[in-house]
Automatic annotation (TrEMBL):
Domain Cupin type-1: 60-210
Cysteine disulfide partners in this protein: 31-46
Binding site for Mn(2+): 108, 110, 115, 156
Presence of the UniProt keyword Lyase in the record: no
Single GO term (MF): manganese ion binding
Amino acids binding oxalate: 105, 110, 115
Originating organism: Coffea arabica (Arabian coffee)
Cellular component aspect of the GO annotation: apoplast
PANTHER family hit by this protein: GERMIN-LIKE PROTEIN SUBFAMILY 3 MEMBER 3
Span of the signal peptide: 1-21
InterPro entries: Cupin_1, Germin, Germin_Mn-BS, RmlC-like_jellyroll, RmlC_Cupin_sf
Name used for this protein in its record: Germin-like protein
Annotated SMART domains: Cupin_1
């Protein structure tokens, strides 16, 4: 009995803790982002509800493939609060992902969201890595109709393992999930992180670091 009370309390604590890490629950039906507004808050202030129209809850364009003519061979079309103002305060968003044959969506994390992904066309090799010290890799090959989840904050990737284009749709539990692309963030920061720091961190020569930096 005592054990179950301790366990329940622990579970309740965990849920409270987790809920604080994500977008808060809205206190009104909607709060369409006042995109041009000058006031800065955590999120975007609400547009006058009397001026809200159906267009504020609408986005068109996911029928178009993203541009995959880049070194990764993938394109992401986000539908976040910035693209769809009606998402403001609702704690949800989505994206279309396109992959050229053998293209990758390079290792990245969403600091504010879990991602659930389904394959519409092609096959994808997907994976994520848990936090230290385990750094455990979970991978799977997905076919059309398969679904995979990438837990919030963890580094994950996708690779098209086929000779045809692949398409996926992702849902994310934040209006503004954020993207930290590992290579671009570390090797392409503005200004650059000192190559001495990266040479030690990656245990390679500075010239290797500088070669990678030159690509971002
Ligand atoms: C796709 O991106 C490449 C590289 O940025 C660019 O040269 C090309 O014009 C783009 N294609 C389309 C259809 O926008």
């Amino acid at each position: 009995m005592a054990t179950s009370i301790v366990f329940s309390s622990l579970l309740a604590f965990c849920f409270c803790y987790v809920s604080l890490a994500f977008d808060p629950q809205p206190l009104q039906d909607f709060c369409v982002a006042d995109v041009g507004g000058a006031v800065r808050v955590n999120g975007v202030v609400c547009k006058d509800p009397k001026k809200v129209t159906a267009e504020d809850f609408f986005f068109s364009g996911l029928q178009e493939p993203g541009n995959t003519s880049n070194p990764s061979g993938s394109g992401v079309t986000p539908v976040f609060a910035a693209q769809l103002p009606g998402l403001n305060t609702l704690g949800i968003s989505m994206a279309r992902l396109d992959y050229a044959p053998w293209g990758i969506n390079p290792p990245h994390t969403h600091p504010r969201a879990t991602e659930i992904l389904t394959v519409l066309e092609g096959s994808l090799h997907v994976g994520f890595v848990t936090s230290a010290p385990e750094n455990r890799l979970f991978t799977k090959v997905l076919q059309k109709g398969d679904v995979f989840v990438f837990p919030a904050g963890l580094i994950h990737f996708q690779r098209n393992v086929g000779y045809t284009n692949a398409v996926a749709i992702a849902g994310l539990n934040s209006q503004n999930p954020g993207v930290i692309s590992v290579a671009a963030n570390v090797f392409g920061s503005n200004p650059l992180i000192s190559s001495d720091v990266l040479a030690k961190a990656f245990q390679v020569d500075r010239n290797i670091v500088e070669t990678i930096q030159s690509k971002f």
